[in-house]
Amino acid sequence: MDVFRIEGPVRLAGSVNVKGSKNASLPIMACTILACGESSLGAVPNLSDISVFGQLLQNLGCHVKRNAQGQVCINSTVIDNPIGEYEIVRQMRASICILGPLLARCGRAKVSMPGGCAIGDRPVDLHLRGLQELGAKIHLENGYIVAEAPHGLIGKDIFMGGPFGSTVLGTANVMMAATLAKGRTIIESAACEPEIADLANCLNKMGAKIRGIGSPRLVIEGVSQLQPIQYEVIPDRIEAGTFMVAAAISSGELHLKNCRIEDIMAVVDKLRRIGVTVESKGEGCIVARTGTIKPADITTQPYPGFPTDLQAQFMALLSLAQGNSVIVEKVFPDRFMHVAELNRMAANLRKEGPAVIVAGVKKLIAAQVMASDLRASAALVLAGLAAEGTTTVNRVYHIDRGYERIEERLNPLGAKIRRESV
Ligand code: EPU
Description:
Blueprint: E1 2-8, E2 13-17, H1 22-31, E3 38-42, H2 48-60, E4 63-66, E5 72-75, E6 83-84, H3 86-89, H4 99-106, E7 108-112, H5 125-133, E8 137-141, E9 144-148, E10 157-159, H6 168-179, E11 184-188, H7 194-205, E12 209-211, E13 217-221, E14 230-232, H8 237-249, E15 253-257, H9 265-273, E16 277-281, E17 284-288, E18 297-299, H10 311-318, E19 324-328, H11 337-344, E20 348-352, E21 355-359, E22 368-370, H12 374-386, E23 389-394, H13 397-400, H14 406-410, E24 416-421
Parallel strand pairs: 2-15, 3-14, 6-7, 10-11, 18-19, 22-23
Antiparallel strand pairs: 1-23, 1-24, 3-5, 4-5, 7-9, 8-9, 11-13, 12-13, 15-17, 16-17, 19-21, 20-21
Helix pairs in contact: 1-2, 1-7, 4-6, 5-6, 6-7, 8-10, 8-12, 10-12, 11-12
């Protein structure tokens, strides 16, 4: 198992290229199931989650490879085993987003029911309800979701909001299934995340008829078939936000290339309010901090609100603010595994239900810490950049799921991160 040894404090400066979006790539890879033939996807990041998803598609019967130009080519001519095995789904919950496209393409699908994970229970009831509304018969069998629609799916008006608002992958699943349903589907309270808009744009290029992209009301006219596609996924807004915090926490200045700041305005606004400058530059932006960090109150929300996937990173940053901040988690109310670890680094954080009170401290101090999930581990790396001494982050495989060789990209900017196998 790999660990990171991070020497701090450092100041980061220079340019960094933001990779393609993991969370856009995964459903877009799934949507190739809807067409027969070879699709090729550009800007798909080279991450362990992407390889696992490729394996999932191969098990269905697809051929998946990365070509010399770095594109992921998926040949979905044959799908003869519409089953998402437990062994893969337990490694990556996003595997659930093959359910909708498999059902639409094959008339049946069997996908392991995802369990909980470090960030909460994460039910999939809204995915299943949405597919049932389209006419699927669904039951549970030995831990597997078995979905059947032998005579095809039928368009319907569906409300998809849940107790925590919209669902990203639930919207992806139902939208993908509805592209091949008979008639019109309207999804109300659809997720508006840029990754869902990217998926919808990709589906439309494949021949789907989706309107209202980027809004909470998606209107989908079913078509009889979709074509394979060549498509380039959008830049990763969460990786961009993580690099922005890296610049801010290290009192540095970074030029982020390939970054759409319009996709993270809630984050940019927060940074500006706490004393970090963010200025657009070409296809990216410059992020810099010279003064102190002011405290801020943050509430995570579905898009366009502040993303839960940057909550942990901002907690690391606000730990060093001059004053008290409050962070409320409204998407995954239990997503606070990083709190105890940041406190080991001399942060002063107190959890109160779905909120954390962050009392700013003058400095963070290096410690041994444990990564618990992808974004929590990113927060620990960021804290390590600012902390005095050598921080050891254990279970680095979590960060490798969502950030491509992060140490090789931060070290040229001034970070001192060593990967060691222990
Ligand atoms: N929810 C339900 N029922 C459902 C589905 C969701 O109650 O059927 C609840 C969830 O428990 C949660 C809220 O709705 O409280 C939102 O969950 P959502 O379904 O939107 O999450 P997701 O689609 O499973 C994606 C991202 C996550 C990101 C969330 C929220 C991917 C592969 N995953 O998950 O990304 O945190 O949306 O934005 O796109 C990450 O990249 O580290 C990550 C966890």
